[in-house]
Design brief:
By secondary structure, the protein is of the alpha/beta class. Helices cover 38% and strands 14% of the residues.
Length: 326
């Protein structure tokens, strides 16, 4: 396994991040345990979750599964760089309107405590804002995160689904307080979703954030089964999207075959090749899916391969403003 520093921090994480969104929803607890054990054995030390994961009407279940896995001991907790998130509503009537989607010092404190209880740990290495909330000031947010860092409950702060200018403002406000600020941005990024190349990726790279792409396979559309419509696969539920992008997907399948690799391996290796990216998030539902994803760190795409992928999946033309102005 390869490792990289997470943004401007001194924290080293694996170049593959294990996403756990399926745990407790599409993947039962025992299979979730097997996947996490196998990930550790393969050298993956970076695990990502969120307080809202667990399936419909079961927010928190995923964190509980991870907590029970940690409870088995054997150094599991100590070996994991653990990331979770705050923003979504948890259906807690006690919080009233302050428990709805959004951020506040009140919510960060209460939801962090609840996550730590479910995860059966006293801290998380990375605490991420799951979405931007422009109704709350950075004085309030950074004040709340500073307290959590001081208490030892979180190590670093990350963002998710932020615009490039949100990242810039956040870092400037943190700098004014003498605070480290954001070390990561978790953002949707794939061969089909290349808009982040305009602002988010350049801003993150310039301001010291490691990018952690989510949905790097575009919900299965870039997977090896996309054109086969295999029953039960994520791509099987994408029939309309497959037909819309059939020409691209057929070219992609043929090109991947030329390389001797599966489409998902090529798609993930492409994401990993971007210098702004620390680690794409893989979300295996089975142990087999985890094992097939491990190969991405060994696949190095050259200039010719990257150019061909640009031809199949055109990007915005580079970073702003050069992508659209003289």
């Amino acid at each position: 396994m390869e490792y990289a520093y997470l943004g401007k921090s001194g924290l080293k994480v694996s170049r593959i991040c294990l996403g756990t969104m399926n745990f407790g929803d599409r993947t039962d607890e025992q299979e979730s345990f097997r996947i996490m054990d196998a990930a550790l054995d393969a050298g993956i030390n970076f695990f990502d979750t969120a307080n809202v994961y667990g399936g419909k009407d079961n927010a928190g279940r995923t964190e509980e599964i991870i907590g029970r896995w940690f409870k088995q001991g054997g150094g599991r907790r100590e070996k994991v760089v653990l990331a979770t998130k705050v923003y979504g509503g948890m259906g807690n009537d006690v919080d009233g309107p302050n428990g709805e989607r959004g951020l506040s010092a009140y919510k960060i404190r209460r939801h962090l405590e609840a996550s730590l209880q479910r995860l059966q740990t006293d801290h998380v290495e990375l605490y991420q804002m799951h979405h931007i909330d422009r109704n709350v000031s950075w004085d309030e947010l950074w004040g709340a995160f500073e307290v959590a860092v001081y208490q030892g409950k979180i190590g670093y702060v990350g963002s998710s689904n932020f615009a490039g200018w949100d990242i810039a403002v956040a870092q400037k406000e943190a700098e004014k307080r003498g605070f480290l600020g954001l070390v990561s941005e978790q953002h949707k990024y794939s061969l089909f979703t290349r808009q982040p190349e305009l602002e988010v990726l350049p801003a993150s790279e310039a301001l010291g954030l490691g990018v952690i792409p989510w949905s790097p396979l575009e919900g299965g559309l870039l997977g090896r089964n996309a054109l086969k419509k295999i029953e039960g696969s994520r791509s099987g539920g994408n029939a309309e999207r497959v037909e819309k992008h059939r020409a691209q997907l057929e070219q992609f399948e043929a090109f991947s075959a030329e390389l001797g690799e599966a489409q998902d391996t090529v798609a993930l290796a492409w994401v990993l090749a971007n210098p702004a990216v620390t680690a794409p998030i893989i979300g295996p539902r089975t142990l087999d899916q985890l094992e097939s994803a491990l190969r991405i760190v060994d696949v190095k795409l050259g200039e010719a391969e990257l150019k061909r992928l640009d031809e199949i999946f055109p990007g915005p033309g580079g970073a702003a403003p050069n992508a659209y102005a003289w």
